[in-house]
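B., you asked whether I could sanity-check this one before it goes into the benchmark set. Here's the sequence:
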Amino acid sequence: MRKTWVKKWMIKSSGLLIALICLVISEAGVIAYAQTPGGFSIRAVIPNNQLDTKQTYFDLRMKPGEEQKLQIVINNSQPVELETEVRLNAASTGRNGLIVYTEPDVRDENLKVAITDVASLETQKVTVPPLGSETVTIELKMPEKPFDGVILGGIAVTGIDTGNGTQATEGVSLNNTITYVIGLKLTENENEVEPDFDLASITPSLINYRTAVVAALHNKAPLIVKDIDINAQVYRKGSNAVLHELILNGAEMAPLSKGDFVIDWGGETLKPGTYRLKMTANYEGKTWEWDKEFTITSEANDLNKEAVGIKKDYRWLYLLLSLAILVIISNIAYRMGKRRKNDKG
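And here's what the prediction gave me:
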């Protein structure tokens, strides 16, 4: 009887282990730049003017006014038709120093030439036959006026859930879609571009439903920034005690973009008042420093109500209980003193 039970338990455990492994593999397939089981993959057709031939993204040296056609290939490994949407997006800086290519219509006020100004698609909707492939053409036309630095963007391909089971195997994504991106980097020369940063804003916020203060750092140069170190501390006005801080090494920023650097509030409420932010950015041996005051207003109470994991402050309750106990003790002492006085009388 015992052996039978053990055998059944081992079979069930093996099944759970296999299911867990499949889930992990499926999750990894969403993140990795590779083909997912039952899904699709994309590939860049590298042209002759590629600067770094070891890379699988486009890294092109072009001339002012030059025109060129690029191609990417969408491979469908499914036995059913695949519907895809292709977009051109400017590179932007995501939260805490990550360059992203999937945010449409993001454009910095200093960005004079975006990837969408020089590149265009023949079509945005591409149908790929079962177990087949389709080639997508991107047309480039460089501006007539020469420029220094980098134009950076990405070609994003999204599998569309048509409801016929096309994307059913990609269920780890909440909206049943997967997006792959091929980077597109364009330069005209090797002229050195000086880095330039500015602290654009300081804002109380909710990040993943947790209270935080967001410092928006502005990369004002047409330069891909890698390995920038961020160090930020928040103080109460008039105090030298650090309330919260952020130490982030090796962050990245897209050219001419703003990046949100999040200072976690440690599960505490955003209390109205005046604060001070000291922040440094270290990049290629140079240091930028900022020391700015900012205000958290009563509007932050709305953020506190929506936040999760807020630490409860029971100090007022402890104070109230202490006062109540003090009043009770004082009252008892008064009554005892009065009773003794009466007894003596």
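One thing to flag: The chain is about 20% helix and 40% strand. Otherwise nothing jumped out at me.
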